[in-house]
Design goal:
single chain, 5 helices
Length: 261
């Protein structure tokens, strides 16, 4: 135990000596850097700026005895200017503008603003109640539709989840399962081409029927299709037909010697 204490004391002494020497070395390096900066930076800067600060220093030596008097005079001038501004500008502004505005604000603008805000709040509350009632009515009306849509979406989600479950966790086939051979797929015509051909045929038939119907006279043609002309009015009057000459037999006249009545 004593040996350990002695070794620890020696290590402590060695560390202290090393720290002291290192600290002295850092101090000497700092002094050297300070001297270098003084000779290569500070001294040239002093000589370069001497035409500026030297006259100012001489002027300060001259003005220093009189400066307190000048400073007190400036302070008194400031107080006098403050009083002048107070009596000439601030007091008239206070009596003519500030106080009337504050009175108008406290007795007119603020009560009117409170009343206006209260009325606007009531109107907004009524509008909000109307909107809430409308939304509640719409929500109640569309409840069956939403229930049906929810069922459909839930069904789609269940099917999609089941498909992914089968895709990732597909059950193995039973041992006795018979796998049918892959049958060749029947080649059916391209449905797009079929639809395109059907559309062209329909358009051709419609064009042919339209051309034929245009070439035939239309019984119900529009009145605006014909040129404007004055209609001719034909007046029919009943006229008697000329009599038809029909030969009729006559009796033979017999001459008698006596007068005929």
């Amino acid at each position: 135990m004593q040996r350990l204490k002695r070794i620890g004391r020696q290590i402590k002494i060695v560390m202290r000596v090393m720290i002291v020497h290192l600290w002295r070395f850092m101090g000497r390096v700092g002094l050297a850097i300070r001297k270098l900066l003084t000779w290569f930076l500070w001294t040239p800067l002093i000589y370069v700026t001497m035409p500026v600060w030297l006259p100012l220093r001489w002027m300060w030596e001259i003005v220093q005895p009189v400066f307190p008097i000048i400073w007190r005079f400036i302070g008194r001038m400031g107080l006098a200017l403050r009083r002048l501004l107070t009596w000439g500008i601030w007091r008239p502004f206070d009596f003519l503008l500030r106080r009337p505005f504050l009175w108008l604000y406290h007795h007119g603008i603020r009560p009117f603003s409170r009343w206006l805000i209260q009325k606007i709040g009531q109107i907004l509350g009524r509008l909000w109640g109307l909107v809430r009632r409308t939304v509640a009515h719409s929500w109640a009306v569309t409840a069956p539709r939403r229930h049906l849509l929810r069922r459909r979406l839930r069904s789609h989600w269940t099917i999609w989840r089941a498909r992914w479950h089968l895709r990732w966790i597909r059950p193995s086939l039973p041992n006795k399962a018979e796998i049918a051979p892959a049958a060749p797929r029947l080649s059916i015509g391209n449905p797009r081409l079929m639809r395109l051909a059907t559309a062209f045929a329909t358009i051709a038939v419609l064009l042919i029927v339209g051309i034929i119907s245009v070439r035939e006279p239309q019984a119900d043609a529009a009145a605006g299709d014909a040129a404007f002309s004055v209609p001719e009015v034909i007046i029919l009057t009943p006229t008697p037909l000329p009599p038809t000459l029909v030969p009729t037999p006559t009796t033979e006249i017999i001459l008698t010697p006596w007068p005929t009545p």
